[in-house]
Task: structure prediction
Amino acid sequence: MSTPSHDGIHHIKLPVTDLERSTEWYTTVLGARRLIQLDHRRPDGTLFAVILDVPGIAGRVELRLDPATAKSLSGYDFLTLTVANKSTMDSWVARLDSLGVRHSPLIVALVGWLLVVPDPDNLRLRFYTTEPHGLDTSAVEFDSPWLGAGVTAEPDPHDVVCAVGRLTVLPGHEDEVLELMHTVADATRQEDGCLAYQVHRAKDDPSAIVVYESWTSPDALAAHHRSAHMDLFRKTASSLVNWPPKAELLTPQA
Result:
């Protein structure tokens, strides 16, 4: 029996934790256009998906509200776009820099040049040149951290490190600290070895912020504390909360 025909890709679906944030990101970075008439809403009017028309992508792109899946796929390189040559890639780098969008340096991949751009959920959008770089195999950056696809195996439970931190916000700085914590959380979830980083506000005490974090190893947690965004956090938050925050290390038991 012959294989029936089809007409190519209908749409690509990406999980996101925040529809408006991701819609703005893809609109800004890729020049996508939101097709508002195709917004997906439940019978009660709740928006659960946004449809984008993205220049250069056959079919459409759906952003589906699915926080659990988005978090589980953090670091996965889900989509690779074609770029003609290194000159065009340099133009992409200049554009991303002008927008303040985080990205990898140009990477020497197996055949061409590669650029990796994490979206707001740390799903890795990639650009790859069709023109070969022409470099020797010894130049290929096999060990680049930008080539990883998140955690590829279950960590040894004996190595997993968890921690709970508690910050008491000084009066009048609640919104400022919460905004700062959102920035810290976004950057931290993109770190190698981060299994979870969740920011909570105490239900009965608006001044109390509780952070739960989980890491594949003590080394991963130590690297997190040495990161640039944590250094900035310490410098910024020390005047906004009772310093130092209280922290407690945990060890998974069951």
Notes: The two ends are 52 Å apart (CA to CA). The first helix runs from residue 19 to 30. DSSP finds six helices and 13 strands in the chain. Residues 145 and 218 are 18 Å apart (CA to CA).
